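Throughout our pipeline, every protein is held as a single compact record rather than as scattered files. The record that follows is passed on verbatim for readers who wish to inspect the format:
___
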Amino acid sequence: MKIAIAALTLSLITAPAYAMCVGTSTFQSCTDNSGNNYTINRMGNTTMMQGNNYRTGSNWNQTSTTMGRTTFHNGTDSDGNSWNTTCINGICN
């Protein structure tokens, strides 16, 4: 019984964020239970996401473009820092 209660408690603590999205395959607007709101816009081999958190006031964005087996990601994090990474065959640097 103690194991079952511990497992249930752990699962409640580590529950993943739940996101609800509406829209089409090319444009979606999403909200999750962590206070995030974001839009996803897909055009060909490029996906753009812009988001904000109404609880913290933070904003961020990301653009991902795939060419063959290579995907280029870049964006701005919630602290305003620019970042980028490249993934080849699913391995990112």
